[in-house]
Amino acid sequence: MNVFRRRSTKKKDQQGHNQAANGYNNPSDPNTCTSKVEQLSEKEIPQQNLAELLGVTPDVNPSEGPETDSAQQKLRDVRLIRASVSQHLPKPPSDLDQNLQQHLVNVQDTVRSELMRLSPRLEKMGLIGSLIDCYHHQTLDHICDLFKKVQSSQKTFELMNWVLHPYLSQDLLVHPDHQENAPIKKGDFPLSTELVAKAEKLLLENVQKEVRKCLDQILLIHTNQDDDSEESCIGLYVDIIQLVNVMPEEAQEINSKLSHDIREVCFQELKMFLGRYTAEQTKILGEKAKKAIPNQIHFLKILKTCKEIKKHVQTKSEGIEDSLIQEIVATLENMEDFTLKLLMEIVADMAESRLQNYFTTKYKRFFLISDVETHFSKVSWCPDIQKRVMDEAYKLIAHTYLKHLVRSSQRKLRKCWSPDVVQKVIEDAELLHDTISKLAPGVEQWKLPELLEDENIDAVKITVATMQRSRVDEELLSTLLVWKGLSKSQAKQVLGALPEHEPRQTNSVSECRHF
């Protein structure tokens, strides 16, 4: 079923066209127009006069028999009509993209004027149907040729609009001065489903080529201007989304089914592009991660690009094949996971290098804070992404801090690290939270100060439950509770109250190994 419908308010019997009755079979077959011959009137005029009327050379082929042979005469008449149509139909200009609209106007004017000029005489001969069919089929071939020659999807849309409106409308044939002789009243201009099907196929091919080319150009441009500016960081996903969205939106003005088909083509090309993009970025991130303290901007840029493209695809997914959407989303989410994982590995290495000896030296400065400030700078173009990253980094740094903290008892730490261990830990926790909050306002606060200050066992349960939701594992929480000063039975009681508590088998030896 063809997706296009004529936009006309005239009655259905004026819109319809019986292709069999009018001899419409294959528009590309030069013998199509001869199918009208059996319906011609018996009235005949000398071929010389018909040739002069049509403006072509008389058709002479002795092998077809004498002119008195009615069937042969009619065949020659149809060939004359075909030659006239071919001669009068305007040839496409060399600079087609610049002059497409004017060329279509010329074609439209020629079709209308020739039909109006010839219809009174050819109607009397019974040849009007052949004239209409010949103009229709040759115009069809001409338009198909134009679809192959235009260079941009924008020009392809202009062609499609012309096919659906001026060409396949009664306005092309009805002239106000010739209402009584209007050919549309004698045999409606064919509503060629094949023409529209060919036009749609060529349009989709043009869209596919242009989208593929433009996506590669976009990536090349943004790769060459890889810097930390806001324009560079958001420009990639903005350009990609605009490219894959603008053509379906334009097509919506023509037909919703065409818009859907174009969007599916755009998403197919997007899927292949994302495969190339993610492979390239995986290599680039790997190189950047090797630096001592790599800048976070490129990581944030990739995360933001993936998020925004994924959101657009999911928003515009209605009617698109589920498997296609799932493949695109999976590619983007895998890239997000890889980027965040690599970024957290950098943070983990940074935290380990600063904390592994931090608790063994008295009055040592908390250098990890300056590393965080150096590695992460606040950006205005992706606060959502930065908050996500800083939240993960915060939890990872806090976990690493606790892991190293509980390796020594408070008594030992008072000797080699700080006279007031609890106060020093609270100061570090607050300093870390303030630093990260400046970069990503709204991050969840580390609950270590509350845990160390809580004396009530029920308050401790609430604080520990909050810390567990921040992905501090139970084993570390158990060790921290004992380090705080709770007995093993009290620590077991607190952990037993956790919503996701899973009892584990331990012995005194494994418990002591934490210290």
In short:
With 515 residues, the chain is an all-alpha fold. 67% of the residues lie in helices and 0% in strands. Residues 1-28, 30-43, 173-179, 181-191 and 505-515 have low confidence and may be disordered.
Protein described:
The chain has 515 residues and is mainly alpha-helical. The chain contains 21 helices and no strands. The chain has helices at 12-15, 47-54, 70-88, 96-125, 128-149, 153-167, 183-186, 193-224, 230-252, 256-289, 297-315, 322-355, 368-375, 383-405, 410-416, 421-439, 448-453, 457-469, 474-484, 488-496, 508-512. The radius of gyration is 39 Å and the shape is rod-shaped. The relative contact order is 0.06. Mean pLDDT is 81; it is low at 1-28, 30-43, 173-179, 181-191 and 505-515.
Question: What topology emerges from the helices and strands here?
Answer:
Layout lengths: L11 H4 L31 H8 L15 H19 L7 H30 L2 H22 L3 H15 L15 H4 L6 H32 L5 H23 L3 H34 L7 H19 L6 H34 L12 H8 L7 H23 L4 H7 L4 H19 L8 H6 L3 H13 L4 H11 L3 H9 L11 H5 L3
Helix pairs in contact: 2-3, 3-5, 4-5, 4-6, 5-8, 6-8, 8-9, 8-10, 9-10, 9-11, 10-12, 11-12, 12-14, 14-16, 19-20
Shape: rod-shaped
> Biggest sheet: strands, sense, closure?
none
Strand content: under 5%
Number of helices: 21
Q: End-to-end distance, in Å?
A: 76 Å
In total, the number of strands is: 0
Mean pLDDT: 81
Q: What is the helix fraction of residues, given as a range? A: 55-70%
Computed CA radius of gyration, to the nearest angstrom: 39 Å
Low-confidence stretches: 1-28, 30-43, 173-179, 181-191, 505-515
Structural class: mainly alpha
- The run of helices and strands is HHHHHHHHHHHHHHHHHHHHH
